[in-house]
Amino acid sequence: MELGQIENVYFIGIGGIGMSALARCLNSAGKTVIGYDKSPTQLTQKLENEGISIHFEDNINHIPKNFTKENTLVVITPAIQKSHTEWNFFLRNSYVIKKRAEVLGIITKNTYCFAVAGTHGKTTTSSILGHILFEAGEEVTAFVGGIVENYGSNLIGSGAKVTVVEADEFDRSFLQLYPDVACITSMDADHLDIYGDKDSIETAFKEFAEKVENKSRLFVTKGLPLCGKAIAVGEDADFKVLDIRVDSASGEYLFSIQTPDCIIPDLRFGLLGRHNLSNALMASAMAWTHGISADQLRRSLCSFKGIKRRFSYQIKTENLVYIDDYAHHPTEIDAVHQAVRELYPSKRILAVFQPHLFSRTKDFIDGFAESLSKFDQIFLLDIYPAREHPIEGVTSEWLLSKIESPGKRLIAKSHVIHELIDSDPEVVITIGAGDIGEMVPGIRDALLGQEAR
Hints:
Organism: Arthrobotrys oligospora (strain ATCC 24927 / CBS 115.81 / DSM 1491) (Nematode-trapping fungus)
GO molecular function: ATP binding; UDP-N-acetylmuramate-L-alanine ligase activity
CATH class of the largest domain: Alpha Beta
Mean pLDDT: 93
Enzyme class: ligase
Distance between the termini: 61 Å
Radius of gyration: 22 Å
Protein name: UDP-N-acetylmuramate--L-alanine ligase
Main location: cytoplasm
Largest sheet: 10 strands, mixed
């Protein structure tokens, strides 16, 4: 299939963070883009503001008559239900139907592709890399899984020669891509509902790594069982971070990067936490090998403003700090906790956590309990189901029973703001990949209002 021959694109699940980036790209390329999603969000509103028509009722009457099987591509989310009316209409009428990863595969086959894989760090690493390449003048389009603050979008650039994509391991989607340069940040167990066990996950990542023909263009976090250029923070590696310190005035990291050829000094980066420093190093190593200069790296790392819901400061005053993060796996929660503790070692930290998926909660229940027990207070919300149906016995009450903390509580979403204000917090962090992100503006405004009194 040639995308150039397609006039119309119909998205089922257009409000997803990955689907919406692809919709934006095809809309900017002149395609007529229409989509369905279950419910309106801030993101779907922005897509509508950009000229994309979206509806929230599963009804074939919303499909325009001029969207024929000859001129229309249908793009579906992997989470689509088999009973979906519109999807079944397209199936019955022999439309070309592709998953998002398949469309990205078509795009990456015809461009020079940087693919960022790993169970953690994909969005931050791909966002930094996309920003570096864009600022350096590359004709790049970067599809990322978060809203990059510099651009207010999950799509960076509109170039036709270079792509940056998140290589998503869910549903083995990353095996659809054609990477010229790739990295793998981590290979922790996740998506066990798809893979079954960690060995199967590692096998899939190794299969992805084999898609990079030139192994000098494969970058891996040191310690992973893969052949490629090793990167590390504070350890010996092909690319490593040196002289790490924090600027007391700006709060930024100051550091140097040692490459196989030289040392790049005087670098600044504003996203704190060693996991974010590792992400910045990975992106820098890929860009450096591509020919991006030291000066261009300095400017881009310094100017990168971050990604919404990735250790995003909402409030930062002397008496109150509020951070929001997308973490939804025990390893990610540990990284967030470590960063917050390093920054605010003497303050009381309250975490509001919304578990994401019944299957993930079941598979990692002990890991979640151990990670959450490290916070001083825990407000635990009900599990966000996303694409899943409930699993008997898998509840937030079960998780709460395993958390070892005197400050743990199960709280309804509607009571969060009231309970936060009553708790008189010093540091608040909201954590989770579900609709907790929609609550952030309200929480921020309420806490700011309370502090002003």
